[in-house]
Design goal:
Strands 1-2 form a two-stranded antiparallel sheet. Helices cover about 75% and strands about 5% of the residues. The chain is globular, with a radius of gyration of 20 Å. It is mainly alpha-helical.
Amino acid sequence: MNTKTTPRFAELGSRYYGVLLATMAVIVVLSGIGAAKGVQFGPIITDGGFFLFPFAYILGDVISEVYGFKAARKAILTSFAMSAFASVCYWIIIILPGFDDEFGREKQAALETVLGPVPQLVLGSLLAFLAGQLINSQIVVRLKARQGERRLWLRLLGSSGLGQFVDTLIFCAVAAPVIGITGAPDFLNYLIVGFVYKVTLQYALIPVTAVFIGWIKRREPGYAAEVASTPPSTQP
């Protein structure tokens, strides 16, 4: 029989939340730039942001577990806004008049090639990130309401699969034609490889994620106070 507990979360006043939020936002912005490059390892097709983006989900798990859904939503929306702002900046940089010599024209062409597709990729990335991360965070918080402080590994396992699948499906559908993936077999390769890679990396890093979450919880004064105030009948 499942019993529901009152999940405890830290307040947002400490330095740790701000550092986690800023790191997530930087990762999302850099992933949008990296995604402009198609990458191929033999038969495996992916993009240049493949090694970065899973860490945004790991940080989402940490924030959801320690600070709760509202704090995670704030971090997700802030990362969303920063990535959109970066995209506007790329557009402005491209349309600004450059030097009209050969070197200036070469740089302009390079910027248009590299940063030109980024706004469309950012749009796909933002929609995917928003949907996937909100699902991911909701699962972590709802499972914590049932499990309390126990079974952190189960929350991390359970949240990764669905959130990453929704994220990967939306992003690949938008990004594939931008980076030159047009055929159905290549698209399925891109989708499946992206999903399997992201989930596998998250699962492989669950022990590290769990240790980091424990480290934050022990050093977050608000979290210790919240757990200490939990009635004995509902503590795990």
